Structures are given as C-alpha cells and as structure tokens.
Amino acid sequence: MHSRLRRSTGSPTSPHMQGYRICARKCRENRQDAKTPKENGPTTEAPRSLKKWFARESAHKLSQCSLPFSRSSSTPWRLGALAVHRFFVAFQLAIVRRFTCIATGALLVMQIGAANASDGFLEGIHRHVMLTSTVPENGDLNPYAVVVAPVSAGRIRKDDVLIDNFNNLSNLQGTGTTILDYNPATKTASLLANLPQHAPHCPGGTGLTTAMTMLTSGWIIVGSTPSSDGSTMTRGDGCLFVLDPNGQIVTAWTGGNIKGPWGNIALLDKGTT
Hints:
Blueprint: H1 2-9, H2 15-35, H3 48-56, H4 59-65, H5 76-116, E1 141-148, E2 161-167, E3 178-183, E4 188-194, E5 208-214, E6 220-224, E7 239-243, E8 249-253
Antiparallel strand pairs: 1-2, 2-3, 3-4, 5-6, 6-7, 7-8
Helix pairs in contact: 2-4, 2-5
C-alpha cells in the first residue's frame, strides 16, 4: 500500500501526502465524534469542525484530497477524500441554488417593473371590438393607407379616417381602386371614391398604395402602383392622383421621378396649397 501511494503521489513528505494525512486525520476525528454521544445533544453525522476546517485550509490541499477514489476502499486517506469530496459537492450545489434564486428574483423584479411601467395605449386594451369593415361593395381588399382628416371639407368631417385598398375582389395586388371614409362619431364607413381601374391619365391604371395624405385645404393626394395581374411583371409606373374632398379626380401627376409611388408621404403643409 505504501509503495502504491509513493508511486501515485510522490514522497511521503510531498504536499500530496500531507494533504492525504490531513484528510485521514480529520476523517478519523469526525468518525470518532459521530460514534461518541454528545453530552448536550444527539449524535450528528456531519460535525461542524469539518466545515470550519474547510474554511481555514487552502484550496490547494483540498484539491489534492478530491482525486478519484473507490467508495468500497477503507484506507484512511480515501475516506478523508470521500468526506471532502462530499462537502465540495454540497458547497457547489449551495452556490448554484443561491445564484439561481438571485437570478430568478432579479427576473421577477424586472418583469414587475416592466408591467408597472407600461403606459402605452395598446397595453390597456384587453378586448378588441371591430368598428367597421374596410371592404366596400365592390369587394376590394387589403387596406393600405390610413389617414386622419385634419379639417372638414366636402363630404369629409374633421377627424374622419380615410382608408384605401390595394387589392381587388380577387385579392390581386396593385388592383384596388377604392377609398373609404370612416366617421368615428357615427361609427359608420362610406365609400368616398371609386377610381377607374384603367385610368387613362395614370400609366398602368389604378392600384392605390400607402402614399396618401389630406391637405388642410381639403385636397387628397394618393399614390397608385398598378398591376394588371397582381404581379410585378405587369407593374406600371403609376401616378399621384389629386382628388377633391368629395372623392372626384382633379388631376394626376405622372412622369419624372414618379414611378410606382409607395410608402408614407412626408408632408409640410402651411395651408396655402
């Protein structure tokens, strides 16, 4: 046994052997303490002296005791290594549990703080009620532009919501021709404009997009990016329609840089146009 220890750990005076001797001595003391009844209390299997000793000893010596061992072996240094190894495992589990608790608590605090800080408009809506349908009588689909009227003019009342459609009844893109006027006061929607599918003054025809706005003077500007079959292969250059507040076409701007007007309109309206 001595020669096997010497081969595996070095000389009897090496730090490895010193660590094993310490483990064996502490193990014998703890086993003796466990067998001897205490005067002031019941017998314990894990004396506190081992924990205090673990706190005092260096990590280097403890690491020497936690080398692989056999559970069936009865040699003192292996029993000491088993005791220290068990304490290492318990200590590591305690650290993991503590950090898990801290992380869980921090996440809970963040979630509660986020819930209390929710002051947005949509967070307070728990039931969605349909106000109206954006599908007119001709069956146009896919509402694109949504514009709030800045003034009352013609058939439009201030704060009415104007909506146009990009698709037709067959759900083909670039073929929608209608604009709806939703009145929040009466909660009703009416057809404001139904432009011709093949408008001769708009290259490619009509396919109303998100490029729509209403001026304070009452004029409505809406973009058209048309397609004859719903694909980009037949896309036309389109135009910008100018409508009066009754939904009638006044003119169409074409040519130049106007090629498939798309997206929101950036508007600087001083009320003089």
